[in-house]
Amino acid sequence: MARNGSRVVIDRVTIEAHGLTAEEYQRIVAILGRDPNLLELGIFSVMWSEHCSYKSSRIHLRTLPTEGPRVLQGPGENAGALDIGDGLAAVFKIESHNHPSFIEPYQGAATGVGGIIRDIFTMGARPIALLDSLRFGMLDTPLTQRVVEGVVAGIAGYGNSIGIPTVGGEVAFDETYGGNPLVNVFCLGIVAANGIIKGRAEGPGNAVYYVGAKTGRDGIHGATMASAEFDDASAEKRPNVQVGDPFMEKLLLEACLEVMESDALVGLQDMGAAGLTCSSCEMGARGGAGIDIDVADVPQRETRMTPYEIMLSESQERMLFIVRRGREAEVERVFEKWDLHAVRIGQVTGDGLLRVRNGGDVVAEIPNKPLADDAPLYDRPHHAPDDLATRQRLDLTDLDLSAVPSDVFLRLMAAPDIASKRWIYRQYDHMVRTNTIAPAGAGAGVVRIKGTSRALAISVDGNGRYCSLDPYQGAMLAVAEAARNVACVGAQPIGATNCLNFGNPERPEIMWQFARAVAGIGDACRALDVPITGGNVSLYNETDGQAILPTPVIGVVGIIEDAQRVVGRTFQEAEAVVMLLGAPGPTLGGSEYLKVIHGLVRGVPPTLDLNAERTLQRLVVELVAAGTLRSAHDCADGGLAVALAEGAVDSNGIGCDVTTPADPGGPLVALFGEAASQVVVSVREADADRVAAAAAAAGAPARVLGRTGGSRIRISVDGKPGIDVALAAAAAAWSTGVSRYFEDSAA
Amino acid sequence: MKAKVFVTLKPSILDPQGKTITGALHSLGYDDVRDVRQGKYFELDVAAETTDQAAALATEVADKLLANPVIESYRVEVSGD
Amino acid sequence: MKAKVFVTLKPSILDPQGKTITGALHSLGYDDVRDVRQGKYFELDVAAETTDQAAALATEVADKLLANPVIESYRVEVSGD
Amino acid sequence: MKFAVIVFPGSNCDHDAHYALTEVLGQPAELVWHKDTDLRGADAVVLPGGFSYGDYLRTGAIARFSPVMSRVVDFAAAGGPVIGICNGFQVLLEAGLLPGGMRRNRTLKFICEHVHLRVEATDTSFTRSATAGQVLRVPIAHGEGNYYADADTMRMLEEHRQVVFRYTAPDGTRDERWNVNGSIDAIAGICNRARNIVGLMPHPERACEEAVGSADGRVVLESVVAVLDGHGVASVGSA
Ligand SMILES: Nc1ncnc2c1ncn2[C@@H]1O[C@H](COP(=O)(O)OP(=O)(O)O)[C@@H](O)[C@H]1O
Ligand SMILES: [Mg+2]
């Protein structure tokens, strides 16, 4: 039993201050067979926080498909891993850093990048690509502008410095994110399939080491903050902001990868949320071992830190690892080479306990397994929001649909959701490591795998509007879009990760959104053969009781056998034939058009036919592999008109002259309505018939829309006049839609 | 009038730059420099009647733009000249 | 002992940061801030017997590392405490 | 012949330079740790891009004190070809091997994109195989590439034709709108008087294969190979 523990009485107030319920406290007493002391209570409180324990989400996450022939590591480790051939594995995961990014946008985003990179290289993988999925409030508010500037600069500041290219991402804007932006960062690394390192502590007598930044009083209660609903009280938590040190992490990255070249390491884990507590008990629990550490040996940045502070600190750029007995010296030498001082802070034991000492005296003693794995599981009540039916009702006759298509078109092209994101990705080094083979701004990031003929394509996608109107369909559409983007560059989707951003799960409507979304992800991933290998959940994304749009973000990884075949979304030459693959049937439900032009988030989002989607994606991959496509681009926000225009706007001067099928809803629906499972391709005249034949053989609808070329974007509707604007005008609207909100837009 | 604003990271906040500079100085043999903390320094040229006015303006500006209250604290100095 | 080192771009050199800040302040209506120049500010904790020793050390360090003489100039201040 | 690619803590284009030299150009090259005190008999030295020491304090300010740098100084003094790319250029400036200094980009933002460079001098160790006025499409990736030199230095640079690369429009014409980071006189790269040390902000090593967007940068690395293999008059040593 913990002797020298703090004398503080554990009363109701203390328990509540730790975010624990009375029932949870009783559970702790049952596990310990006694009352915890303050340190032990703190340890339980961070491990059992929503952020670390997934107590509200786990029963739903369990339903996700996590297996497949390529899956080498599913959920449960620091990141997932897929077999990509040539004896190599792709290790990847996405993680959120939402709340910290509102409190201090630059540092919040920067440390988010640092955290996910650590998750990848702790697996032994060399990180080679980052992508970011961002959500902000409307750009016309100064607050949002400041948050955007800070977040983008923070991602750039960390990723550029450590030398991992940010090869893609997505960003969308909605009022609900104004006080609660979303910063989800995806990282992918490569490792020899037989060289994956796990976050396990094994072998009693093996040494427990600490390396990296010294421990300060950073973000104590940060783990609980990250999942505590926002209100003005969060102001007091501000001093807990953490500053990232990308240089330190670069040293850790190189040193760890060098250490892993030998077999001296047993296991490794970064100290992320819940710091030393989480890393030690999770490693112990995974390996079924005990961990005995002395906080007095932990390098400290500040004086008179208490065991409580040291165990709960969230200082960045720290790693915990286990070294085989007798191999300590060689491991220490490698870290010394990189000017890092690895410190032995304890050892692995056989008793399964997390034993914390302070100068030898035991100050906490908790069994690892229940601490890490037996957090309460909640099946929180859920039911559809009462206003759902109202919001899903969309009567076109209530809308003024008389606007001139060309005007609507230019407004949509300039809408931040659709407009060029160059202002953002220009700040990211997207080329370092010389693997990036898709042009910046392409639908998916593509990195070649040096030493092989292959490349990997990655896309992260989510659509909060769709999900707020139908979380099940919306989540399926997100999976489909991410996979489709990957397919459009020629990659076969092979796996996925997800980041689930929602409001307060204690509210049944929010929990309903979550449950429906996870169900949608599961069904779509099963149908498209993309197992989920990991991910992250971020709940309590609310500002003063106002939740964000439910925003599941899906990251899909695809593989291209011949890297040289990759195609982009941009038209390559004039006089190419423009074709639409996939069935028409656009709807304005939840569309960008409704949001931008009518200020509405209404109706029912497009319905996804998973078989049609699967057929379409296979067709596109096959056509790219055959070298038949000159460009391919999926239809998403803004519908067919925008998809066509996006092929033209950065093609330096190749317009198009096409005609779309008519729609009963009228020309605006035909042009700007959104449909699932559509891809616009351009092909050489000579290949058009081959494409049509291949589509017919696959059972996918295909139709010729027209030709590329000319200096205008001309899109008629079933032959009748529709959009007719100068390409230059469209390009101008599109390329300044985001940048115009910022100081440096001139340059 | 000239106003000077000194912005420094709050004491409890990690200062990677200062830490790295300290390390560099030690490897150059300057062990007598025990620690370095890096901050920002602004020289403002302000139109003001009195030094108090100048100080007030500089403070407002530091608060609003020059310093990030979340992680930094600042000090203002006004020299009559 | 504490030594302070102020590093600024030489007056003849256009300071992009200062310029941007000045612009931002004017757009916020602070026209009375005529000009801003941004520099770096270092707080050194030095082991020294006398303030002169401290100043000498700080100067040497500023000269060698903290400032780049090609584009920057520096000033050293030592406070006894 | 053999290249040494110096690795400072925080370098992150070291592998890119090594890959371009070995895998693309088929030249022997070795990564040399900054604490090493010999260049392993290299015939040419590359100071790669990245964020040595996190670019803390000033870009290149700390790296220039690395043990290996005194070897580089000797090597350069003896006429050996040395190229500093991006952060490597900044290190050369801090070390005083090249004149001038760097400021934050005009926009105060990090910029990563392909730019156009006009070759202003073809008699340096790294432009021998280029043609005068040739325009290269090469990426930049930096936040502090806004080159500055005072009036006297500028006069000296002109007098000795030490400006090697300038930012221009795609057709090679000078135009301030294409001066991507605000550098004085749109200077992207310079050399020393002996013309064996070249520093530039853009990344030729990232532009050695069409697969990654451009192969225009090859000529820079191929030039020094040609020089050292003795094709063309070696500039080595000649002042
Ligand atoms: N939405 C999800 N789907 C599948 N697995 C998930 C999801 N969210 C979290 N996980 C898994 O749960 C484990 C813990 O997640 P997380 O706490 O984000 O990792 P870390 O401790 O590195 O932050 C990880 O293995 C992660 O892959
Ligand atoms: Mg982690």
Averaging pLDDT over every residue of chain A, what do you get?
94
Find the count of extended strands of chain B (DSSP E, 2+ residues).
Answer: 3
Provide the succession of SSEs of chain B: EHEHE
Estimated structural class of chain A: alpha+beta
Radius of gyration of chain A: 26 Å
* End-to-end distance of chain B: 6 Å
Question: Beta fraction of the residues of chain B?
Answer: 35-45%
Q: What profile does the largest beta sheet of chain A have?
A: 7 strands, mixed
Number of strands of chain A: 27
Give the amount of beta strand of chain A, in percent.
15-25%
Helical content band of chain B: 25-40%
Strand order of the largest sheet of chain B: 2-1-3
Low-confidence stretches of chain A: 1-6, 222-239
Oligomer: heterotetramer
Number of helices of chain B: 2
User: Could you report the average pLDDT of chain B, rounded to the nearest whole number?
Assistant: 94
Give every kind of bound small molecule, once each.
adenosine-5'-diphosphate, magnesium ion
Write up what this structure looks like.
The complex is a heterotetramer, with 1 copy of chain A (747 residues), 2 copies of chain B (81 residues) and 1 copy of chain D (239 residues). Chain A is an alpha+beta fold and 747 residues long. Chain A is built from 26 helices and 27 strands. In chain A, the strands form 5 sheets. Chain A has a 7-stranded mixed beta sheet, sandwiched between helices. Chain A has a 7-stranded mixed beta sheet with strand order 22-24-21-25-23-26-27. Chain A has a 6-stranded mixed beta sheet with strand order 1-2-3-6-4-5. In chain A, a hairpin with a 2-residue loop joins strand 12 (353-358) and strand 13 (361-367). In chain A, helix 7 runs parallel beside helix 8 (142-162). Residues 1-6 and 222-239 of chain A have low confidence and may be disordered. Chain B is built from 2 helices and 3 strands, in the order E-H-E-H-E. Chain B has 81 residues and is an alpha+beta fold. Helices cover 35% and strands 37% of the residues of chain B. By secondary structure, chain D is of the alpha/beta class. Chain D has helices at 14-24, 67-77, 87-94, 151-159, 218-228, and strands at 3-7, 29-33, 44-47, 82-85, 101-103, 111-119, 135-142, 146-148, 163-168, 187-191, 197-200. In chain D, helix 1 (14-24) links the parallel strand 1 and strand 2. Chain D starts with a strand and ends in an 11-residue tail after the last helix. In chain D, 64% of the residues are buried. Chains in contact: A-B, A-D, B-C, B-D, C-D. The A-D interface holds A 153, 156-157, 160-163, 245-248, 250-251, 337-339, 425-437, 439-440, 448, 450, 563-564, 743-744, 747 and D 9-10, 12-13, 15-16, 19-20, 23, 33, 49-51, 53-56, 106-113, 139, 141, 143, 180, 203, 205-206, 208-209, 211-213. Bound molecules: adenosine-5'-diphosphate and magnesium ion. Magnesium ion is lined by residues 78, 119, 270, 272 of chain A. Adenosine-5'-diphosphate (ADP) binds at residues 52, 61, 64, 75-78, 93, 95, 119, 272-273, 498, 500, 532, 534-537 of chain A.
